[in-house]
């Protein structure tokens, strides 16, 4: 095993030297049809030695199941990214899954408003870990063109943690493909942040600051219920 | 060519129905306590307790059978509800009914018994402005969460106030909790995150076996404050990017035209003929793209066919998006129209651009043939869609349905012909109608409209190609800052991809609108969902929802 962290799949094959191998590696001789980059990386050894972590990261990045999750305008461009011409499938990230329980990656394609944020949080919570989030479009960065709206959450990061932001209104399919590729790269290199819970305002009702609104609603709201509180004044 | 056609002179003695302000004043008699004329129509002020009587009289005696829009607003000294009425037979006949209510008790009679579409419109008015309606069957919030405090478009709303939103499971409205015993009905939440709802729509469904007992579409999951955005931006340039984001199914130019038409008429701006032709061509390309999306996703809903039809539709949309990108510089959010014209001329070399469009149009009949083979000629789809989701014409009218949804119910209503704007009345094309009233008709209607749009585009391309070079004026002379006179009001609509897309603007003497109201066709069309799915099987409800072709950005605004 190489100590170089950046080359996870280099095997120590200095002891394995045969004519066949040399022929395959150098591409000369009659039997050069096995010559390939993969072969070069693995050598002729039938074993691959790597850290399990590295292997898992590589696997995760190379087989991503996206959640079929459409919110707003960006979802139309997201559909175009999935379908012919751009075909996200080519980048090991194609099949949209209708259920969050089968998905690794959630692309958040659009404006999040107050009524939808708890629902999106619920969908995100239902995804099995490890899970990754791609914020698509300006609305998921800051609220975009609707930033000043009374009902608009100022970015997806207020509700769930985001790994990659793809700017644009909407981003072109090429931009989304680039964003997905970047996420894959980060995952494969083990750089992607471990799942963290962001300090979104998700608390049990009794812990909230007391104000007029709370008093009024205190009797109606079940303490087991998911409650989201928006402090518009503190929003970016 | 001016878009403005004097409304009062339009109605010659062909129909003997009262149309002009004087005739209507005579009809209403004592009901009208004042006049408040808008630029598009005569307006009558009535008492808050006379709403139903007035609307009944206008509907039954004067033929105003289409409640196009309900605008609510808060003025300095009063609240106001405006009912914009028009007629399905003659769109140029319009009348506004203004209902002022006092500041301390904003309460007026509901129009729901007269026009069922008033149900949602008045709920929206209650939600955003805070006017209450007597006799309303179900006056609760529609766009904002139930726990929201305050009415955001009223004058004293504090936007920095914290809000609390809960996520709770909804109760079955038809039955008590039967979880312990043998239940009779079952309650299902469909959405707001669901592949079949075309976005973030939440349908509260009660099932009796496999049949739908009750459906309640719950909207507001994409309420992006579009009206507030437009009220805080200036007329000249800042509002135009927003319409692109209402109906985002690639119908951008159609939406921009709605704003352009209202604002141009409000400010009395002419649009050069050359620009009108470019607008017409661009708008019809958008209509094709939008209908392709509708057809593709409809097939996806009915068969779950993500492979052939959906991909074919996407392939054709890609071609249109390329053409539109050449024209406007963007794939979806074009921002191409300007008040008084368009932002730039056709791309050079022009021949290549025309060639590209012609190639697309030449391929289109073959493409549609493929669609017909795969979809409308397919027995499975026919079994699923014929005679399901039936929307009778009277019901469609009462709900204010427009666009392909209305035309597939046999209502011959298309603003491009009935209230002509742009270059449509110079061109040769037909309005498509179908008497089937079911899901299949709505699908067919859209596919045949694509052919008509292709006809329009082809004629526009011919015209543009022969247009003399020195007469290619793309914009008229428009002042840098527009300040329409205080208290001028206008309601103007265009035929969007989904139907009648109207804009109401009240100017307050500044360079920003005092009130900007969007009449969304999807909002009214979606209202028919309970009507067409109650009693049907659950899968047919999904098909009906697909056939209504809603875009949530436009429903919620």
TrEMBL record, chain A:
Signal peptide: none annotated. Gene3D superfamilies: 3.40.50.12280. Residues 73-183 form the NADH:ubiquinone oxidoreductase-like 20kDa subunit domain. Residues 12-24 have a biased composition (Basic and acidic residues). Keywords: 4Fe-4S, Electron transport, Iron, Iron-sulfur, Metal-binding, NAD, Oxidoreductase, Transport. Its cofactor is [4Fe-4S] cluster. The keyword Electron transport applies. It comes from the Archaea. Residues 1-30 are annotated as: Disordered. One of its GO terms (molecular function) is quinone binding. The keyword Iron-sulfur applies. InterPro entries: NADH_UbQ_OxRdtase-like_20kDa, NADH_UQ_OxRdtase_20Kd_su. GO terms for biological process: aerobic respiration; electron transport coupled proton transport. Belongs to the complex I 20 kDa subunit family. This is NADH dehydrogenase subunit b. It comes from Halogeometricum pallidum JCM 14848. The lineage of its organism: Archaea, Methanobacteriati, Methanobacteriota, Stenosarchaea group, Halobacteria.
From TrEMBL, chain B:
GO terms for molecular function: NAD binding; NADH dehydrogenase (ubiquinone) activity; oxidoreductase activity, acting on NAD(P)H; quinone binding. Transmembrane segments: none annotated. Keywords: Cell membrane, Membrane, Multifunctional enzyme, NAD, Transport. This is NADH dehydrogenase subunit. The lineage of its organism: Archaea, Methanobacteriati, Methanobacteriota, Stenosarchaea group, Halobacteria. Residues 307-557 form the NADH-quinone oxidoreductase subunit D domain. It holds the Pfam family Complex1_49kDa. It is a peripheral membrane protein. It is found in: Cell membrane. PANTHER family: NADH DEHYDROGENASE [UBIQUINONE] IRON-SULFUR PROTEIN 2, MITOCHONDRIAL, NADH-UBIQUINONE OXIDOREDUCTASE 49 KDA SUBUNIT. It comes from the Archaea. Residues 45-161 form the NADH:ubiquinone oxidoreductase 30kDa subunit domain. In the C-terminal section; belongs to the complex I 49 kDa subunit family.
